Amino acid sequence: MSEHDGVPAALMTPHGDSGLQPERTSLAWGRTLLALVVCACFFLRWLQGHGWLGAGPALMCLLMAFLLWATQRPRYHKGAAGIRHSWLAPALVSVLLVGLGVAVMSALSIWTILHG
């Protein structure tokens, strides 16, 4: 790639999708990450009423948020490459892991409420 209209080649999108689908997907994962951090902050308030049992759901949220953050760039580049090559597989593992993490966090939250 070369410079186009004064924009350096490094800043141009790595795909030809004018709908910017990888960017929209990346933003959606970013919103999920933000929601997990906000939930962790709410769970930290449980420390007052449930003691250290309340830290479990908060730590689970933060762990999931960290894992999403750590895999964000590779997931974006995989999506951009999929657009470029006209074949894009869904991020099934990421979606399943987030779903499983939310289920575990929910069970841990219910257990904390009942036993805390």
Taking the sheet with the most strands, its summary is: none
Share of helix, binned: over 70%
Our Rg estimate from Cα atoms comes to 19 Å
Rounded mean pLDDT is 82
Helix-strand category: mainly alpha
Residue runs with pLDDT of under 50 for 5 or more positions: none
Silhouette: elongated
Query: Strand portion, in percent?
Result: under 5%
Helical stretch tally: 4
Give the CA-CA distance, first to last residue: 59 Å
Give the strand tally.
0
Q: Name the quaternary structure.
A: single chain
The arrangement of helices and strands along the chain is HHHH
Description:
The chain has helices at 21-44, 46-50, 55-84, 92-115. It is 72% helix and 0% strand. It has 116 residues and is mainly alpha-helical. The protein starts with 20 loop residues before the first helix and ends with a helix. α1 (21-44) packs antiparallel against α3 (55-84) and α3 (55-84) runs antiparallel to α4. The model has no long low-confidence stretch (mean pLDDT 82). It contains four helices and no strands.
Give a quick summary of the entry:
By secondary structure, the chain is mainly α. It is built from four helices and no strands.
Secondary structure layout:
Blueprint: H1 21-44, H2 46-50, H3 55-84, H4 92-115
Helix pairs in contact: 1-3, 3-4
Please give a handful of descriptors for the protein shown.
116 residues, mainly alpha, elongated
